[in-house]
Amino acid sequence: MQVQQSESTPRANRKHIGLFGCRNAGKSSLINALTGQDLAIVSPQKGTTTDPVYKAMELLPLGPVVFIDTPGLDDEGELGAQRVQKAQQALNKCDLALLLIDAQTGPSRADEAILQLIRAKGIPCIQVWHKSDLRQALQPPPQCLNCIAVSSKTGSKITELKAMMASLLADKEESRHIIADLISPGDLVLLVTPIDEAAPKGRLILPQQQTIREILDHHGMALMTQLDELPLLLSKLSSPPRLVVTDSQVFAQVAAKLPAELPLTSFSMLFARYKGDLASTVRGVKQLQHLQDGDKLLIAEGCTHHRQCNDIGSVKLPGWINQYTGKKLQYHFCSGGEFPVDLEQFSLVIHCGGCMLNEREMRYRLQSAANQGVPISNYGVTIAYMHGILKRSLQVFPELRELL
Question: In what order do the strands lie in the sheet with 264-266?
Fold first, then answer.
């Protein structure tokens, strides 16, 4: 099994493997043993890892993965409690959890507590009884499923552990698509991609890149234009495109320039369906009709970026909402890996498409809102709703026709 560093695959598309356990259980040592490289700092001093650390790797035959090295679950004091909370929050990103148990002592109370949490979240887990090379090391009980005794120092059973990881992370038949299930080979897809102050210089943003790649993989044809050139481009086509996909911030302008019969949706909607549950965001957007003065709204983004003067999340979206509702609302913002645990203070959560989040974390956020009874919607859905084009933009999704 070869291991190499690779930056070619976005983190959101990698399998996330979290390592959990008490301080000095050997989480960092195990990462080094699994990868065959000194990626993680190893020290006999307790509490070396103080925050979750993400390490993107190519771990064959698993493919692209991200290891999450977490703080010790038995950390102490007020600061230690915050570190433990960070470790627990890392579970929301994990496709697989490795629980490291000190083979000299067996499972601790902290180990048992995190194991219950892992099981409650439905995350596949391997109990790794670590430091099996030491004297009087204990063995996992015979009834323990997905348990293995290993030693990072000697390399004992590391290969077998990799095999277990591969088995639990084995890809099932891929059923999620960004756009491939909406088109046929030979179809032309027109992508409207504004190049403004928020666009990164010299490149396209990730949703655009991934959508183009999937169109090409499915033997479709991708054609791109900016908003101003859209009418000219349409006039030059001998046959209409199968589908038009636009950046959400120009949703209304694109709809006005397109013939009514042309199917239209947005990158944000495609990714809301790909990473989470588009139907729940459609149901959640209706909360806009019931907002009252003083209500709090959370606008959440999965990425961190320098906010421009006309940023869609912090400027354009609140402006459109204020104009649509006519209410005096309070806006709160979060970005990147930060997402509030307590959502009950908010009357509505509006989330980006989540292109920088993996599917598990995006679904966690949706479920967290649902569990607390807080409606949650999506950038593209919200913008289409406020501009009266939601029904049109959902017609391309067969599974949502009952919501139209």
Answer: 221-225, 188-192, 243-246, 264-266
